[in-house]
Sequence to fold (260 residues):
Amino acid sequence: MPSHFSTLGMAVDGEDELLQLAEAIGPLAQPVGFDGGTYFHWHDPSGAELWLQVNADNEFTGISPHFAGQSRVIVRLAHRVRAADAGPFDGGFYAWADPAGESDDADTPDVQGVYPMVVDSPEFARLAPLDLPVTVPMQIAAFAHEVEAYDTEADFDAAQKSEGADGPRMAAESFIPSGLFHPDGGETSLPEARVILNGRVLSSERRTNAFTKQPFVTALVQTVGGTYDAVIDVSLLDRAPRVGGILSGSFWLSGRVVID
Fold:
């Protein structure tokens, strides 16, 4: 499986190469201070972003990738989420998409939107002053772990039929927050920013990371609850998906709160 860095055209092999990348990017990045440290934010013309983390003692503590695109999802940030092995400035949010929309579980008191999900944030520590719960627009990048592109919705439907599954088939615009559940179906105590997403391609492009000269693929995808910026390693898909077609796969989510 490709890494979240190779998904942005920044292939690194191991921790040593990741540190070398951080050292090369650092002088080009803009400092963004917060209580307890500093993010060094680097933005490439291709949309690829890196957020380097430095603590108050000027020690490098981590690095997070992101992709800056055109997606918009209105979300209700319910509470913060941090993995057991998270670095000091890593984390995300348990969120509800489209909190003004209707849900199949609308009779359940704790339902606050169309579906729940976890979205990791490259600027998690910077958002510490944000009072929760709060409804905000987010730009969310979906980093592909596995992906298929179908030229038409009919092709997508045919692929599901050919798999021979007897159960219900997924809609062309559908969203499953797979990181909230164990494989056996029960909820997990440590939710992750993983989803299964199907959506209609609104725009797509094969881009080149200006820093590394390595290619990657992007697509703006419309699905239930909003639009998402899919980014894809060329080892998974070496062409831009057809506009009007269906993109389907499993993804990791990274999001930024949009401040107009």
